[in-house]
Amino acid sequence: MTATRPQFLRWEVMLALVVLALGYFAWQDQRAAPVQEGAVVLLVPDGMSASAPQARMWRDAASEEGVQLQVLAVSEWARAVTRHHRQWPALIVPDTFQRSLDDTAVRLLHEQVRAGTRLMLVYDAGLLDGQGHYAPGASRFSDLTGMQYGLYDTLRAAMTTSSQIRGSAAMMEHLQIPPGRYLDLHADFQHDTVMFSGRPMSREVAVNGYRQGDEGQTFPVLVTRGQPTQVLLHSEQGYPILSRQVLGKGETLFVNLPIGYLKQRTDGIFLSGMLRYFVQDMLGWPRLANTPDGKGGIVLNWHVDSTPAIPALQTLQKAGVLDEGPYSYHFTAGPDVYHPGDGAGMNVPANPEVRALIQDLARRGNAIGDHGGWIHNYFGERINDSNGPEYVQYLDLNQQALTAVLGYAPREYSAPVGNTPRWTLRWLEQHHFLGLYLTGDIGMGTTRTWLGQERLSPTLWMFPVLTMGELATAEDVHQEGVPLALYSDWLGAVVRFVRENQAVRLVYFHPPGAVMVLPAVRTFVQEMRACRLAGDCRWFTLTQMADFMNRREAVQWTHTLAAEGDVLSASAPQTLAQMSWWVPQARFGRPEVLSGQARIDAHGNQWRITVVSGKDIRVRLPHAR
Predict the structure, then answer these.
(1) 599: which residues sit within 8 A by CB, 6+ positions away?
(2) With 268 labelled, which of 150, 174, 242, 519 sits at a CA distance of 20 to 30 A?
(3) Exposure string over 444-456, b if 16+ CB within 10 A, otherwise e
(4) Could you tell me which of 242, 176, 167 has the C-alpha nearest to residue 207?
(5) In 3D, which of 260, 324, 339 has the Cα closest to residue 532?
(6) Which pairing describes strands 182-184 and 556-560: parallel, antiparallel, or unpaired?
């Protein structure tokens, strides 16, 4: 029987639809898992977008460390590997939210590493199979890490323990953990006079915290058996906490610490430092510097909150301490301190001497900011997450008083007694503040702080304070009977840290407390001055650093991998001036500027590419011979 014309048409239409469907799925397959040149791939569960809080947290850390990060669902990555045989140079499997991986993903990760991939494997990543069960015996990644862990069958709840993080002082600082956040294992603040500068950097130290009772701070780690190729940090029981293991042509960096979880608990220094290590030391890739011109320095934050600060500032001026800078001075402007009517406050609106002081400091290039709300202790000790409507007036009063003196509104803030409820952050955002001093994320540079699955502020930059163990203020040092020489030793080590690492950190004083330890403060300022005159350090204000970080976020840049020499390209909507890139000398020879205005110099074992002017730059990175 002969088919009629309408039947032929139906077959033609069906064939066309099949072809279109195949073409669509092929297109979808091609567009899935696009390769982002020179980017580290963060593998996330299917259904999690790059804008999900867990992924954004990692993206924030990568941005702050100048690392290119691509978020990719496991299934997209696996499809690209199996169907297109793609080889990713760098992969991260994160902790906490990527605990489950099916056997196919585990097998592909093994194949990728053996073929040359560098893998950053974090804590409990992939400990569970696709059905949410622990693998029998040990983790399926044990051969990638060089040791058995995830020993649920035999240890149950005891498969994890609580431990200090220990290692050499040199490794701590290489991970951007500053002196004071780490201490000697047997630190004795009452009798030691030298702790940070007079002993070899190979000595063993431990990470410390700031909150009372954090001395010898402990963290959750997995019990391990066996020894990897290289151990960089370890627990007090000897379990590797940060280690490297070679397998085939590739290598794994195993982080036996829940660094994502810790970042969600305002302790992001480990995620940032270990991500930086992975890109800088294991991959040898360029990073966008997070300081202006790639220079290190100090944000010196003065909290001025009561009348004794006035003679103290005069004493500091006579000692030459205030001749350096610019500094960030934050004032509590009301007439009281402990309770309304006590008369112990600065009383900015009615005190001509204080008004003249503020105006003089501003004329000299210093930044003036708000130190909370009007009545220092009364405000700081009473505010909480639920009483904003009652206490917001004190923030208004403080801002109005300083604006009247300056002729413009302050844009930086510090919280009395470190108390920062969320409603104060919303107030700061509404009033266009840029940044604030923070008692979380201790030891870090300028950062975005997370609490749970919430970034504390979408716009504000946080400036974590540096501490010497549990001691943050000069008053603490004086009251605890710490030898002045030891405190001076720590401040000198901070200067060395920012110079050697070209990092920026915040140190703060109250003027009366600084007078208590004046010789140490004067030496600190003199050491910073010498560093500044040598061109190695700068003083920064919170405003300067926040402005820079906002401008830095607008930079678009790529790192293109090529056999004959990689290429770094960057652009910005206004200017790239003061933007710098760090390029490891172990992998690349001296960079060659192909277009744009930039200078090339070296610091330590890194090339530094610094843009002088212009909106675009293109640089060739020849491979080292």
Answers:
(1) 609, 610, 612
(2) 150
(3) bbbbbbbeeeebb
(4) 167
(5) 324
(6) unpaired
Predicted model pTM:
0.93
In angstroms, the CA 579 to CA 577 distance is: 6
From the list 157, 211, 166, 210, the residue with the least C-alpha distance to 186 is 166
Residue 182: both structure tokens together: 């780490």
- The percentage of the chain sitting over the pLDDT mark of 70, rounded to a whole number, equals 93
Torsion over CA of 40, 43, 49 and 51, rounded to 10 degrees?
-40
User: Average pLDDT for residues 475-480, to the nearest whole number?
Assistant: 94
Amino acid of residue 383? I
The length of the chain is 625
CB 80 within 8 A of CB 32: yes
Instruction: Decide if pLDDT at 29 tops 60.
Output: no
CA nearest neighbour of 43 among 77, 81, 68: 77
DSSP element (H, E) containing 621: strand 606-621
**46, amino acid identity:** D
Residues 411, 404: Cα–Cα separation, whole Å: 14
User: Per residue in 257-306, pLDDT tens?
Assistant: 999 999 999 999 999 999 999 999 999 999 999 999 999 999 999 999 99
Collapse the DSSP code of 346 into the 3-class scheme (helix H, G, I; strand E, B; otherwise coil) and give the result. Answer: coil
Strand partners, 42: 71, 92
Q: Which residues contact 364 (CB under 8 A, 6 or more apart)?
A: 325, 326
The phi, psi pair for 433, rounded to 5°, reads -75, 160
Q: Which residues contact 581 (CB under 8 A, 6 or more apart)?
A: 66, 286, 287, 288, 289, 294, 557, 568, 570, 608, 609, 619
pLDDT band at 24 (very low <50, low <70, confident <90, very high): very low
First-to-last C-alpha distance (Å) of the chain: 76
* Measured CA angle at 560 (ends 557, 565), to 5 deg: 125
Is 446 in contact with 550 (CB distance < 8 Å)? Answer: no
Per-residue pLDDT, 38 = 85
What region, left, alpha or beta, does residue 156 occupy, with left being phi > 0 and alpha being psi -120 to 50 degrees?
left
Query: Scanning the structure block, which residue is given the tokens 């997370």?
Result: 450
Amino acid at 126: G
Query: For 311-348, how does the pLDDT look when each residue is reduced to its tens digit (9 = 90+)?
Result: 999 999 999 999 999 999 999 999 999 999 999 999 99
Tokens 């035999």 sit at which residue?
A: 154
Task: Quote the pLDDT of residue 10.
Answer: 58
- Helix axis angle, 352-363 relative to 388-406, nearest 10°? 70
Could you report the per-residue pLDDT of 395-424, keeping only the tens digit for each?
A: 999 999 999 999 999 999 999 999 999 999
pLDDT of the residue at 518: 98
Q: Three-state SS across 300-312?
A: EEEEECCCCHHHH
Q: Which residue has the tokens 């399926």?
A: 140
